[in-house]
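Methods — Computational structure assignment.
A single polypeptide chain was analysed. Its primary sequence is given first, followed by the predicted tertiary structure written as structure tokens.
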Amino acid sequence: MNRPRALVVDDEPDIRELIEITLDRMDVATTAVANLDDAYTAAKKSPFNLCLTDMRLPDGNGIDLIRYMHQHHPGVPVAMITAHGNMNSAIEALKAGAFDFVSKPVDLQVLRNLVGTALKLGNRAAISNRTLIGDAASMHNVRTTIAKLARSQAPVYVSGESGTGKELVARMIHEQGPRADHPFVPVNCGAIPDELMESELFGHKKGSFTGAVADKLGLFQAADGGTLFLDEVADLPFAMQVKMLRAIQEKRVRPVGVESEVAVDVRILSASHKDLDALVKLGNFRQDLYYRLNVINLHVPPLRERPEDIRLLADHILERLATEGDAEASVLSPGAVEALECYLFPGNVRELENILERAMTLCDGNVIGARDLAIPEDGGDNDQGDYVADDALDAVLESVEKQTILNALEQSRWNKTAAAKLLGISFGALRYRMQKLGLD
């Protein structure tokens, strides 16, 4: 088998030699040159699997080589070598299309991780078992962008309203990229108490604080080799934002109670339904962290902007719910379809799922009518605060539903067929609701 080949471009002989030795030990052949002109010549003569280039070269800028390789050799990942601490250059390179970056002095473990990840791109078919449903032009654009971003290691900030599917987008970026065989670790930054945030993210040593009864790996280490998804990143405490910035820039973390840092190899994806730019202007979110996370912004459109996808989504959701509950698939009446297409969905796809799940359970037979949807009469012309209130109402309704099912089961001495008859629903619907409510 032919060895993979790398083009190394740096005007410092010591750096070129260090990289050549490191890659040779990884069984990667190298062609090393000192300037852009020689790099262009080498790229024209023979194919490469990877390119590493310094930012500042005697006859130009490494950004020019990134653009050249993207135009003439689009399948070759290009990584930038930057001066230590010069994150502006790194971000500029990533925005120009660089696969990743490594800082001087070159950390050999970081270099090996980068090369290994880059070489996987050529050996992996970009296949994901997840997809975004929708024929709207905006969704085609999102799917196309996901495929492009999967080939990069640049941080991506996924923006969009609650319920639009931001985590699904992040998972697809991960699954279609070279890190797919390693963990995808989602973190809800708003769900971790402030006093536990550092321990959860970076880990801790036994005895480092009250309650630390054993050593614990942090979420950064849990995602090593894979992807760390920082959901609701706007909720990070301000003091924690400083430590997060350092961990992302240095690719190292320091567990609580440990003196030394630990190297981590993770790709950072983040998301929030809040306006991070506005929070930066208000002084509630660090500008330097914002620019580090928001190298590339991928916006997921709200459901009200793609009404042509509602029927397609609804059919897909009903089929999935029926499969999960081992029940007969429900269908929408023409009136129900019209009602859904006229509704604005402040809660987006998540709200559509909730509406259909409730309607499928409570409707007579397997045809869902407009009334079964229980859509608000205002057409959904409310804000996110109203949708949070809807969530609270759903919790109350779920509690009532749970108690109603329990009463029916007790009356029928836990005969599910009899209980379903008492409730006026099918056996499959009862079984599905029991699974969802944790009553199995």
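Note: The chain has a mean pLDDT of 88.
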